[in-house]
Amino acid sequence: MTIDVREPAESQESTLRRFRKGSPPDADALCEVRELALRATGVRTYTPRQLDAWVRSRDPASFASALSGDDEIFIVAEDADPGRLSGFASVIIRGRPHLWSLYVHPSRQGRGIGRRLLGAAEAECRALRLNQLNVAAVLTAATFYEAVGYRLVCEFYADLSSGGSEATLITLKHYFKRL
């Protein structure tokens, strides 16, 4: 199923083919895009230990499981190069709906793909009659969410490890937007 989004600007046509729902065969590519994006954008804000713990917090098996289930919706941006993804977004729809993931491949950042993925995720929420979307944003993404209309609720800490090490605590900002 192809997600209906606005046509890409001319400068994006050479790299972005289409948006579509994610499926279990996408698990490895999602894991790769996530790790590359985390390491590229997080290096200015987070320590190597924090980034390593963050990368390890979701592996291809956990992506495959989520892609097979009904609790999380995935939208992927297919690259014009076969087998490559430009980015993806996922929304947990059970309980209080929240954007769980929004990652764009570092070589594709700055081209509006993240904004369009977020718009597609919001459209999916509206189609499900959800009237609000929550986001736990990393510090490096805070200005992005503010620019697209999300309101700051609070800041909090999340532990990326199972051991509660202070070295793997990161600061997040909780945002929400009425849809």
What are the SSEs and their pairings?
Layout: E1 16-21, H1 27-42, H2 48-56, H3 60-68, E2 72-79, E3 85-92, E4 98-104, H4 113-127, E5 132-138, H5 142-147, E6 151-159, E7 169-178
Parallel strand pairs: 4-5
Antiparallel strand pairs: 1-2, 2-3, 3-4, 5-7, 6-7
Helix pairs in contact: 1-3
Structural features, described:
There is one protein chain. With 179 residues, this protein is α+β, with helices and mostly antiparallel strands. The chain has a single domain (10-178), classed as Aminopeptidase (3-Layer(aba) Sandwich), CATH 3.40.630. Helix content is 31%, strand content 31%. It has 5 helices and 7 strands, in the order βαααβββαβαββ. The chain has helices at residues 27-42, 48-56, 60-68, 113-127, 142-147, and strands spanning 16-21, 72-79, 85-92, 98-104, 132-138, 151-159, 169-178. Strands 1-2-3-4-5-7-6 form a 7-stranded mixed β-sheet. Strand 2 and strand 3 form a beta hairpin. Mean pLDDT is 87; it is low at 4-13.
